[in-house]
Every structure is written in C-alpha cells, then in structure tokens.
Amino acid sequence: MELRDKKLLMDDVAINRAITRIAHEIIERNKGVDNLALIGIRRRGGPLAQRLAKRIEEIEGVKVPVGILDITLYRDDLTTLAEQPLVHRTEVFFDVNDKVIVLVDDVIYTGRTIRAAMDAIIDLGRPARIQLAVLIDRGHRELPIKADFVGKNVPTSRSESILVLLNEIDGCERVVIQEKTT
Description:
- The protein is built from 5 helices and 8 strands; from the N terminus they run βαβαβαβαβββαβ.
- It is α/β, with parallel strands linked by helices.
- It has a single domain (13-76, 86-156), classed as Rossmann fold (3-Layer(aba) Sandwich).
- Strands 3-2-4-5-6 form a 5-stranded parallel beta sheet, with helices on both faces.
- Strand 4 (100-108), helix 4 (112-124) and strand 5 form a beta-alpha-beta unit.
- Helix 1 (12-29) packs across helix 2.
- The longest helix has 18 residues, at 12-29.
- 35% of the residues are buried.
C-alpha cells in the first residue's frame, strides 16, 4: 500500500500561527503558567512541546519545564508492532506531582496513543490535571478522549492519513493529507 500526497493542509506559516494560538489558549485556560509543564509524545510531540514552551516564555517571560515521553511499552498494540519494539528514553526530569501537565502530540486519531501517554504519566506521579494539545485532530475516536487545544480540525476518511513534517525531524515544515492507494 502506498501513500500519495492529496492536499497541503498547513505550511510553515500556518503551523507557526497554530502554535502561537495554542500557547495563548494554554495560558488563558490555566490563568497563567504557575505549576504548568509540557510533555511531548516522542517523535513529533517533542518538538511541538519545545516550540510551545518557547512561545509561552516569549509571552509570559516564564520558562516552563518540558519533557519527552516514550509510550512504546504502554501501547495496546505492542505485540502487533514488532517482535522487538524499539524503546526510546523518556526524558521527564521534573516532578509531575500536583502539576498541570499539557500533553502534546502532532495528530490525534483514535485516542489510543493519548491513553497510553496518560498511563505513562500516571506512572511518573499524580498530576493535578492533564490537558491535551494537538496540532491536528482528524476525528475517528475509539476512546472517549478529546483535545483541549487544537491547531486544526481536519475531518478525514479512514482511507486517508495525515502526515506532519517538522524541521527538527524531517528537515521541512508542512502538514499534508495523504490517500492510501493499492
């Protein structure tokens, strides 16, 4: 099965604009940034969390802690991924207890990745609250999970896929919708 680009959803300017808006929404919803920390889900959630933290610091003048979470061992489809799944390091070097944690990911689809991430965070401690920020919400939830902060809602069919490309990982910056072809 191949994927072919169908439509450009966001360019670098639109991604940057969404990050700025989400940063403002996080600050507003939490009445500032006291006791706030961001945790990005490894791969593209990490750079997005870093960008949000930078934008929050530019707005509020306060540096918020940022961590990176590897959820590989928390996935409910672990046995179908690979015989020996590749596990990366979780890099959360702050206490999550009683903090407002904003979990950051690139795309929310079924909600299963977010459920796994929440399990991983709870293993680190007991946050006061967990909120969710995503760049793209494409629908098709299988679990009752909803993002608190969304860059763009993109209704998709199950035969489509969303590809987020970020400079830090991919060397380019865009979000495209792709069609699965046989």
